[in-house]
Amino acid sequence: MSCIFCRIVDGDLPSRTVYENSEALAFLDANPLAAGHTLVVPRAHHETVGDLPPETAGAVFEAVSAVTPRVERAVDADATTVAVNNGEAAGQEVPHTHVHVVPRFEGDGNGPIHRLFSSRPSLSDAELDDIAAAIRDGNE
C-alpha cells in the first residue's frame, strides 16, 4: 500500500512514536507546525472520520486524550490545538484519518481555528432548524 501512514504503522517507514494502543498510533509530525506537533492515526486505513468504526474512533480519541497533556508538558506549551482536516477540501493531505495535536504558545500569532474563515454565513432560524434536522436524521 502506498499510504504513508499505513507504512509508518506497519514499520516500513521510521517514526518517532510517542504513544500507541491497540487501535491507534501517535508519532511526531515530520513537518511540524510547532515543536512537539504530534499526529494520532488509526492503525487500520480509514480515509475520513466518517469511515472510522466506533471502536476505532474511541481508541483514536483515547490516544488523543492521553497524548495531548504529554505533548504540552514535553515542550512547555501553554495550550494545544487539536484538529482534524476531514477530506481534501478541508486541507487533508494524507487520505488516512489523522488528528493533529499542535502545541500552542502565548503570543505565537497563529490564532484560533476561527481564523480559517474570513466570513461566516448568515442563517435564519428556519435554515438552522433544517440543518439540525438533517444532521439528526443522518441525511438519509
Question: How would you characterize this protein structure?
Answer:
This protein has 140 residues and is of the alpha+beta class. Strand 1 and strand 2 form a beta hairpin. The two termini are 33 Å apart.
Features:
five-stranded antiparallel sheet, globular, 140 residues, alpha+beta, single chain
Concise overview:
With 140 residues, the chain is of the alpha+beta class.
Q: How big a fraction of the residues is strand?
A: 15-25%
| Annotation field: number of helices | 3
- The average pLDDT score comes to 94
Helix content: 25-40%
- What is the alpha-carbon Rg in Å? 17 Å
| Sheet/helix structural class | alpha+beta
Q: Describe the strand arrangement of the main beta sheet, using strand numbers.
A: 1-2-3-5-4
Report how far the terminal alpha carbons are from each other. Answer: 33 Å
Q: Which residues sit in consecutive blocks of at least 5 with pLDDT less than 50? A: none
The arrangement of helices and strands along the chain is HEEEHEEH
Global morphology: globular
How many strands appear in the DSSP assignment?
5
Largest sheet: 5 strands, antiparallel
